[in-house]
Structures are given as structure tokens and as C-alpha cells.
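[Q] Does anyone have a clean C-alpha cell version of this?
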Amino acid sequence: MIRLDRAGGYAMIHKPSSLAERPGAHKNPTGTECLNFVTEFLDTVGVIRGDNMADDLSDIIDHYSSDPEMERQRLVRHQLEHDLTWRYLDNYLPARGSVLEVGAATGVYTVELAKRGYNLTSVDLVAALLDECRKSLAAKSLEEQVNLVVADARDLSQVAEREFDAALIMGPLYHLVQEEDRITALSEVSNRLREGGIIFSTFISRYGIMGDVMKAIPNWIEDQTGVQFLLEHGRKPDHYPKEGFRGYFATVSEIAPLHEELGFESMVLAAVEPAISADDESYNRLQGKQRRLWLNLLYKISTDESTIGASRHLLYIGRKR
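[A] Here you go.
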């Protein structure tokens, strides 16, 4: 079942028969076949893109435009997320090639990828963030390797290339609170990956955030309406004000199927902040050999089922069939 916003309410639309049940379907359909099937379904219910985007993200633009340094500083605080994400990028990115980066922000990953010789098309919804990214690239004389595009993840029509070797969508999926918008964004990315291309996508865990919430806003628990809605739907109630950080918080069990429906072969689902809950400083203050050994250990346990949902941020890696 797919939940669709209809005139302020919710309509339950029965999903058509799966691709495998269609006459003449292949037992193991290609990514293109899966994508065409999902696109056809979304088209029938009018949620592909453009005027049919399910959610207005102007508040998200305002949120990040008000402080373009916010994301860079976030990763200064959350160093384990940054370090483990790089460990996975090192191990799963192709050695060279073209990379589509959706949600580039101020360029924390963009600059390093460009330094390593990748050719990038880096997209973000917020122009102010890409301005900071541009400055960082210029400071390293890397502007020629990166095409910066201001665009919504749900409509990448400005990106003409269809044969990227890899794609990073690290951020947009946890600001798309409607399921159909997340499907559309992933479809847009899949459309631009070559067969065999690798996708890296990130999510915020529905239950992994609780340590941070308890630490930063303990009175949140008194709003039992909001608490129960988050537990059931992964977001704030629709009638709550659109302000501050408005996001979608995923369950572990939904992430791989979301990608597989679009033709990706799942490779890894990992916790990128395992074992620390809201305690960033214990990792941040580590140096040298101790930091390296702890990172090795946490990388080793990051795919264990008992650690994944307890991490604030989750990383999915898949291959387009």
C-alpha cells in the first residue's frame, strides 16, 4: 500500500501486481525494468515530479539558508559518522569515474572526492550551501572537476548524464517525509546510473535518535501525540508547524526493500555511528593509534543487526542491476 496526500487527508491506493507477477516478466528483472515498473505506477497516481511533488520544501531551504555552515559543523561534532562513511566510500566506490552527488551541501565530501580525481555533478536544493561548496572548491583549484547544480532531488531534469559510475544521496532522503517523494528521488538517481553503478544513500534511524532527543530536548517526551506519531509514521504530525529540522526517520526494515523495488541489489546496510548513542565526544577525543583501532572495531560491528537501528545515521550501499 502507498499512502498519498489527497486534499489534506490520506488515501490508500492499492499497489498494482509486482513486477515478477506480470506476464512475460523476467525472474530477475534488470534495474531498468524495475524502474520502469515503479515509474509507471507513480505516474498512474500522479506523483512523479514537478507540480505533483507531494511536499513543499521551502521550510527546508529556509532552515539551511539561515546558517550555511550548519552541515559542516555537524560533521565536526559527529566525527564517527564522517570517518565510517569514508571507510565505506573507500571500500565501495569505483577507483575512478563520474559521481552524481545529491545533497552536496557545503562540499564536505565533494572537495575530497574531487581531490581524488573523480568528476562530479553535485546537486543541492539550497543555493546558499552550494555557494559555500564553490568557495571550498575554488580554494583548492578544483572547480573544473565539479558541476554544481541547484535542484530538488525529486527532479533532476537539469542533470542530462545517464551513465554515472556512482551516486551519493546523503541527506535528501531524510528530509522527504512523504514516501512517494523518497521513491521519486531514488528513481531520479537510478535513472542516471549506469548498469552496475553503485548507490550510497543515508537515513536517520527512527529509534537511534532517542539518545540525542533525550539529551537535547528532554521535554519532547511530554508531547505524547508527537511521540506516538513519530513512532508510527517516522515524522511530525502533519498539522504541526513546519519549522526547525523537519525530517523523516526510517526503520531498518524498510530501507533495503525501498531500493530493491527500484532495481538495486543490496550490498550493505550499516550503522555509521554504532555503539555511541549521543556520546560523540568519547570518539572525537581519540587520536592516533587508539582512534584508528576503535574505528577498525566499529567498522567491523557496523553491519551487525544488533547495532544498526541504534545508530543515528544509517548507510545503504547497492548496485544497479
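[Q] Thanks! Anything notable?
[A] Residues 8 and 238 are 9 Å apart (CA to CA).
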